[in-house]
Design a protein that fits this description.
The protein has about 170 residues and is α+β, with helices and mostly antiparallel strands. The protein contains 6 helices and 9 strands; from the N terminus they run αββαααββαβββββα. The protein is globular, with a radius of gyration of 16 Å. The structure holds iron/sulfur cluster (SF4) (2 copies). The site of one iron/sulfur cluster has 11 residues, from α3.
């Protein structure tokens, strides 16, 4: 149990939407060790990445009950840049349903002034949400980064670049 009193219960969605490096498990495919809706078959021996993982719903009660991943089909995590919303590829339009779509837009609006991004990920395909529009970024690899072009705090363009090119 977490500080929020929430438990994963019948939810196992992170075992589908997250990539697990140690298992070479790609994002958007069920882990072979998962019994969907029941739990991890190798729980005592699961990789460190799995041990340290908690989605935002599990640990932050500011995210209301309807965001529970098994219901919403959306797993929220934070990154250095902001919020990442991984959508169950079996329900690729889940993030466009209400109330999720409106709440995501509200976060994109507040994120713009705080320089925090809201990114929706379906499989490996990413979409950057801004108050005004969606930037479909296509498939973004683990070695690639989103580069935003800003006009003040407003995002006017977004592209994807190799991380190694940014370091040069
Ligand atoms: S997505 Fe969140 S609530 Fe669901 S199993 Fe993973 S950590 Fe638990
Ligand atoms: S090893 Fe277990 S906890 Fe980790 S992704 Fe697979 S099923 Fe989930």
């Amino acid at each position: 149990m977490t500080a929020t009193g929430r438990q994963c219960g019948d939810c196992t969605l992170c075992c589908k939407v997250m990539a697990i490096e140690e298992l070479a498990k790609p994002a958007g495919a069920w882990c072979p060790h998962c019994a969907p809706g029941l739990g991890c078959r190798i729980y005592p021996d699961r990789p460190a990445e799995c041990r340290s993982f908690s989605c935002v719903w599990l640990v932050n009660e500011l995210l209301e009950e309807h965001w529970k991943p098994s219901r919403s089909k959306l797993v929220l995590t934070t990154s250095e840049d902001g919020l990442e919303v991984r959508c169950d590829p079996g329900f690729p339009g889940a993030w466009r349903r209400e109330p999720f779509r409106s709440e995501l837009r509200e976060w994109a609006i507040s994120g713009e002034t705080l320089d925090m991004t809201v990114v929706v990920i379906v499989g490996q395909r990413m979409t950057l949400l801004t108050p005004e529009r969606e930037f479909d970024l296509g498939i973004v690899g683990p070695d690639e980064r989103i580069v935003r072009e800003l006009d003040g705090t407003r995002v006017v363009n977004a592209t994807v670049t190799k991380a190694s090119d940014l370091e040069q």
